Amino acid sequence: MTTDRDFDRLARAWLELGPDEAPERTVTAILQATETLPQVRRRFRWPAWRDLTMSRSPLFIGVWATVLIAVAGIALLTRPDQHNNAGTPTSPPSSAASRPPASAVAAGTLDPRLVGQWMGDNRPIQEIPLMGGTRLIFTDFGASYLTPANSPVDNYLTSSATATAGTMRLVTGTDLNSDCTKGDVGIYTWSLSPSDRVLRIDASQDDCIPRIASIVGSWWRIGCHDVTDGCLGDLDAGAYRSAFTTFHEAPPNQFPVLYGNLTYAVPDGWANSGDWDSGLELEPSNVYADLAGERPYQKIQVVAHPAIAAQDASCSPSDQPGVQPTAAAMIHAITQLPSVTASAPTQISINLLRGQMVDLSLAPSWSGICPAMGGTRSAPLLHQAGSGDQGWAWRVSAPERWRLIVLDLGGGNLAAIALIDSGTQGSFNELAAEAMPIVRSMRFK
């Protein structure tokens, strides 16, 4: 799930259009796009649901602006001389024959398969937090715009959208948040995967250079049942990135990576059922489709900053004192809890990260019941360290079987992965067999 978005992409997108002129407006757009283009550097993360900005380095901006001006100059010097070829069309690039003219798409028609929200990686729009994800939104009344992934109410590069037969036409409207001129026309090709879950957009021509740099690439449909979440829902087989989750504490005055903190691969038949700043959830598609909760549930949950939850009768949101923040110490402490029955811990390595793994279930002798558990026997297990009642919390209940993995990520940071099944031992075994290859594919940044 990657999209090229550095200088090569911006320059290539512009040059491949074969421009035969460079009016002041276009050069200005190039420079504006350059000033908003994040540099290829170590990525940082912006906390989910916060709209922040980070100033770019003036040195890097100056260098990039200089290079783009040079590219523009080369393009102008190498184009055919307009005065010596008056009335003669300039020769287009070899791919131009397949490009549709701007009039090829009738206004007012938008393929309904495009309507909705699509998730992508960071795009060179200054208002989108550095290294945060981006949403591309097509409305049912024929508009398109980009937003930060964590703030889909802030609209940028708003355009009227027309799309039929693999060709898309975007026309810039009146938009104070746009770097383009009203009436700028862009023609793009587009295609969908057989499942309609992955969208690919490529440029044919556009007067708006920032739009080329921001919209071209791959986008993944946001199909979450929870409309307040940005999860993808049902997935095609393949590799994916988290959109919001972060696993490392940020150094002072910096933010760790947000988009792509966690990468993972799934086979057919899985869904991304949750993606938030402190964790990610995957479910078999048949479980995800069971909105009524009529069947036993199965899931993979991955969370950041786990701590042993206080073992008190009220299941309070407090840390259990005296447990060191290491995988070995945490798993050992869990095996000693009176509320669970646990297997002997085993070591596990996931893409060079070392950790501990244990299978567990609620102890038959445990009679406690946590609030909001519907009267089911249950006990606190883990929760988000130091978060009080504001973070995530894991409680193990009577019908569940768990496989719990705690990984040392370095720098005192931990991640916890749980395979959870509320059915039989046989269904848990089936879940473990299918889920462990997914777990072993995970990479943490």
Intertermini distance: 15 Å
Taking all Cα atoms into account, the compactness measure Rg is 26 Å
> How many structural domains can be distinguished in the coordinates?
2
Residues in helices, as a percent range: 10-25%
Q: Can you count the helices? A: 7
Overall shape: elongated
Low-confidence stretches: 1-106
% residues in beta strands: 25-35%
**Mean pLDDT metric:** 77
Please count the beta strands (DSSP E, at least 2 residues each). 23
Keywords:
445 residues; 2 domains; 8-stranded antiparallel β-barrel; 23 strands; disordered N terminus
What is this entry, summarized?
With 445 residues, the protein is an alpha+beta fold.
Give an overview in words.
The protein is an alpha+beta fold and 445 residues long. It is built from seven helices and 23 strands. The protein folds into two domains: 215 residues, no CATH class; 212 residues. Helices cover 18% and strands 31% of the residues. The strands form four sheets. Strands 9, 12, 13, 14, 16, 17, 18, 21 and 22 form a nine-stranded antiparallel β-sheet that branches. It has an eight-stranded antiparallel barrel with strand order 1-2-3-4-5-6-7-8. A three-stranded antiparallel β-sheet has the order 10-11-23. Helix 2 runs antiparallel to helix 3. The N terminus is likely disordered.
Topology overview:
Layout: H1 7-15, H2 24-35, H3 58-78, E1 116-120, E2 134-138, E3 143-148, E4 156-164, E5 167-172, E6 185-192, E7 198-206, H4 209-215, E8 217-221, E9 233-234, E10 238-241, E11 262-266, E12 270-276, E13 279-284, H5 285-288, E14 298-304, E15 306-308, H6 327-335, E16 340-342, E17 346-350, E18 353-362, E19 378-384, E20 393-397, E21 401-410, E22 413-421, H7 425-440, E23 443-444
Antiparallel strand pairs: 1-2, 1-8, 2-3, 3-4, 4-5, 5-6, 6-7, 7-8, 9-12, 10-11, 11-23, 12-13, 13-14, 14-22, 15-19, 16-18, 17-18, 18-21, 19-20, 21-22
Helix pairs in contact: 2-3
